[in-house]
NUDIX domain-containing protein
Amino acid sequence: MEIKNHFGVYGVCLQEGKLLCIEKTRGPYQHRFDLPGGSQELGEGLTETLKREVLEETGYALSDYSNPRIYDVLVQEEGQDFAVHHLMAFYDIVLDFERSQQTLPQKVIDGSNDSANAIWLNLEEITADNASPLVLKAKAELRGFPELDKTSYMNWKVKKGIYGTI
């Protein structure tokens, strides 16, 4: 089986017991909750990617970021003959509500981005049926039990409908 590498930078923001997530619109995590973030553009540094992606996907600017760390998961979509080794840099982020936009940028609305909406979720609402592996890693970490070893998701089901249902 072929393994493809994917690297992304993601923000973890917990406020009043709720985790900032996005509603994913495409890719293997579509119709699931995901962390705001994504891939670097050519020549972009990690924190530049973090700031750009969080703004694009949530409409929020950052006032601070800290505590970089790396996790990974292996995801093989059901029916595919390859797997993706998803390497992810997590940063704790603080949102700047004074400079933030009230709505998502047009490039998100017109479909050139993969976030439909930003949403705050109680940790208890997050399950393997409604969240991406990234959100599950963040949940474990926030509960005090970080999953440091690579987690594998074989025969990963891509959701075809409403969040939390197949």
Q: What stands out?
A: The CA atoms of residues 10 and 37 lie 4 Å apart. The chain is about 15% helix and 40% strand. The chain has one domain: 2-156. The mean pLDDT is 89.
